[in-house]
Specification:
Helices cover 26% and strands 20% of the residues. Strand 1, helix 1 and strand 2 form a beta-alpha-beta unit.
Length: 235
């Protein structure tokens, strides 16, 4: 079956995410745009995923529990997990490896934890915009240990893209899926044998992707999607 997806969306828990990017607003906008599958991938945390799951269930969307981890090399690594609980557990580990500094909302932005009614139930005080002390390989292995799939984010864009930051793929791990920023060129050789995701990296509701990127899966489940991500692409 063909499922339209946007697998990189930030909520109001990310300090760079707009305050209007609440779980219900994200799900509602994704539904209006005709999407079938979304992932909420906040920086170094998963605390808005329980509310996002409830909102997506209410709108008939499939939520892939996610997170965007910043490694000590300043590379952004997306982690996609089988359950919200697995993502939350990974989030607790990540938090313990962030800088021991508190967020300054007036400078970095709010970090709002929401419930499924879009009510603020807390503020995350850890500095989520910071980098963990995990190496890229360590972060990759931790994502896998929680049953997840590690996916380098926007590999051809910005200072946090793997190919921009490092200039190459590390030889000690083969990433079967990568995210590519489609508005910029990307070396075709770097994509050989890999599935490619094109997502919005939305920080504002209006930036959530339209029905532009389709995934072809056997079943409409998170398990099926993760299985596809883990598989090596046939050339």
């Amino acid at each position: 079956m063909e499922l339209f997806a946007d697998l990189h969306i930030h909520s109001c828990l990310s300090p760079c995410g707009d305050d209007d990017n609440t779980p219900c607003n994200i799900a509602g906008m994704a539904k209006l745009k005709g999407l079938d599958v979304i992932a909420v991938t906040d920086h170094n945390t998963a605390r808005n995923l329980p509310a996002a799951k409830e909102a997506c269930d209410a709108y008939g969307l499939l939520l892939v529990p996610g997170m965007e981890i910043t490694t000590r090399e300043e590379v952004h690594l997306l982690g996609y997990f089988p359950t919200v609980e697995a993502a939350l557990a990974m989030g607790e580990l990540v938090k313990a490896h962030l800088p021991k500094k508190k967020n300054k909302p007036s400078f970095f932005g709010n970090q709002r934890v929401m419930n499924s009614d879009d009510e603020i139930i807390g503020e995350e005080d850890a500095l989520l915009i910071g980098a963990t002390d995990f190496s890229l390989l360590e972060a990759t292995k931790h994502v896998e240990a929680f049953g997840g799939v590690p996916v380098p984010a926007h590999i051809n864009r910005g200072s946090h893209g793997l190919l921009i930051n490092l200039g190459f793929f590390p030889e000690d791990f083969f990433y079967t899926t990568v995210e590519v920023w489609r508005h910029l060129p990307c070396d075709a050789d770097a994509l050989a044998g890999r599935h490619v995701l094109h997502s919005s990296d939305a920080h504002y509701l209006g930036d959530i992707q339209e029905r532009e990127h389709a995934l072809r899966l056997s079943h409409r489940t998170v398990e099926d999607l993760l299985c596809w991500m883990r598989s090596k692409k046939n050339e």
